[in-house]
Design brief:
The chain is α+β, with helices and mostly antiparallel strands. Helix content is 42%, strand content 11%.
Length: 538
């Protein structure tokens, strides 16, 4: 029976009351009971709730996030710890021009000489306040301030200026980057260039950031070009982006703002109630058969002067008025209580459950920010395996966040700085200027390739870590070094390996000049091994 015939049967039944014709066994098909409907994520209607298409209110989110940073010790502790681990005292440049790529472009370069000069000059630049537009901070402090402003405020604008043959870095709070008022001609000018302005950012048809609009006064705006002669001179550093089409960033703690605020109210209520209870020393509980007599009546001061001379409320030794207040102490007296009466002290078990409830929610906040709670709170009281797993996970998170920070901030600063140094002939880079003129991006990228390293996560037990790696190498790899002097120095945060060796060589020369000779290690004066020490003790 076709679909049309079944419909006719239904209408016939409605009109005449004749029941629909029964179908034979051969007429029943498997797909007759298949229904087609759109899937919205819900299996039962109403279980998930209404569909919400969020449109971030960037100014309000920024204000709420900064408010939380100022008011909540949870927010401030986690973000400061996060920043300290990711940046610390600053990331150090490790220039790594790609010699193989340059060779393929018929360019001969001495990488060691290039690295030595570039790293030394960049170190001076990064640690000098001359690198700051205001002359108040250095590059690493700007990186730290920019990172905090990005993850708390959502984003921060970085402007690279070239003043008096010196690169200057300027940070602009993301709150000042906003679309001009309609009275300005900026929108028409952007439209003539084929661009649009969204949330203070001028975008090309491909989505590239062309310019930023900074609000300097009530109705005054400054257009900051994102590029100058092909070099990036202004860019946004993001805390987190909501969607692919989002132009501006949102605070990293945006998803837990409400939770943090409720935790703050819960903490204040718990501490406040505990404080108020402690102000009440005792209370008297009367039963049904009690006479209502107050056993502490003799220890109460009357509200008014009983002498009747001045009719004033008496005061205690601190000068505070006493209104039916129990004496400072009962002087260890024993009281003969009236019938069916009990003296009790206020008690509450609320504080006993505070740690568990508060701690679980702090764990959730830390998880949302991708930082282990024990790291955020500096609590390392777990066993070796648990602590090692937490630190290894945190190490991976640090590396990912450092890579993002390097991509968003350090690499752009280094690229602009290196370009100016080569133009000033301070750093020798054969073929670089020709590549700029020809637009050979392969050569340019090969020259600006670099790493930025920071403080490493220390091993809980370095001996166990090294032993495990040695076992993986097997017997044939027992003599292969697992690291270099440079990387070992970096792991120990011991400065630069080249500088250390040069300094040590000079110190050895000075020691020999003064007649200080190092003892020669032989079988006779070789320090005893651990096994020999144990045998001697036995």
């Amino acid at each position: 029976m076709s679909f049309v015939e079944r419909v006719k049967d239904v209408f016939r039944y409605v009109r005449t009351g004749e029941p629909p014709r029964s179908r034979s066994r051969h007429e029943v098909r498997a797909y007759d009971n298949i229904y087609t409907m759109s899937y919205t994520g819900e299996k039962n209607l109403g279980e998930i709730g209404p569909v919400i298409d969020y449109k971030p209110d960037y100014p309000i989110l920024r204000l709420r996030s900064w408010q939380s940073f100022l008011e909540s010790e949870i927010t401030q502790t986690v973000i400061k710890k996060f920043t300290t681990w990711v940046i610390g005292s600053g990331l150090k440049l490790q220039a790594e021009p790609l010699k193989t790529v340059l060779k393929s472009e018929r360019i001969t370069l001495n990488p060691e000489e290039f690295n030595e000069v570039a790293e030394a000059r960049f170190s001076v630049f990064a640690n000098s306040t001359s690198s700051d537009y205001s002359g108040m901070r250095n590059l690493h402090f700007n990186a730290k301030e920019g990172f905090i402003n990005a993850i708390v405020g959502g984003d921060v604008l970085v402007i690279l200026r070239y003043i008096d043959e010196q690169v200057k870095i300027q940070l602009v709070d993301g709150a000042h980057v906003c679309s001009p008022m309609m009275g300005n001609n900026f929108f028409n000018e952007a439209k003539e260039r084929g661009n649009v302005i969204r949330h203070g950012v001028e975008l090309s048809k491909t989505g590239e950031h062309v310019a930023y609009y900074v609000k300097n006064d009530v109705y005054k705006y400054e257009r900051i070009s994102a590029k100058n002669e092909g070099l990036t001179v202004a860019f946004l550093v993001y805390g987190m982006k909501y969607r692919l089409d989002s132009v501006r960033g949102i605070p990293l703690i945006g998803t837990v703002l409400e939770t943090i605020k409720k935790l703050e109210r819960y903490k204040e209520a718990t501490v406040g109630s505990a404080e108020e209870r402690q102000k009440i020393a005792y209370f008297i509980e009367h039963g049904v058969g009690s006479t209502g007599e107050n056993p502490l009546a003799k220890n109460l001061s009357k509200a008014f002067d009983v002498s009747g001379e001045n009719n004033e409320i008496p005061i205690d030794i601190q000068g505070k008025q006493m209104a039916d207040k129990i004496a400072a102490t009962t002087n260890k007296q024993a009281f003969n209580l009236p019938i069916d009466s009990t003296i009790k002290a206020p008690d509450s078990k609320m504080e006993l459950h505070f740690k568990d409830f508060y701690g679980v929610n702090i764990d959730l906040v830390c998880a949302a920010l991708s930082i282990p709670p024990n790291v955020a709170l500096s609590k390392y009281d777990s066993n070796f395996s648990a602590s090692r797993a937490a630190l290894k996970d945190w190490e991976h998170t640090i590396n990912v966040n450092r890579a993002e920070l390097v991509f968003q901030f350090y690499s752009k600063v280094y690229r602009f700085w290196l370009h100016t140094e080569i133009l000033k002939n301070k750093i020798s880079a054969p073929g670089y200027l020709g590549a700029i003129a020809e637009g050979n991006w392969m050569v340019i990228e090969a020259y600006v390739n670099a790493r930025f390293i920071g403080s490493s996560v220390p091993h809980i037990d370095p001996v166990k870590e090294v032993t495990a790696e040695r076992l993986k190498l097997g017997v044939t790899g027992a003599a292969i070094p697992l690291t270099t002097v440079e990387k070992a120095t970096e792991a120990l945060n011991g400065g630069g390996s080249d500088e250390n060796m040069m300094q040590y060589a000079e110190e050895l020369k000075e020691a020999k000049r003064l007649g200080l000779e190092a003892p020669v290690v032989s079988e006779g004066n070789k320090p005893p091994s651990k096994k020999e020490e144990d045998e001697t003790e036995d």
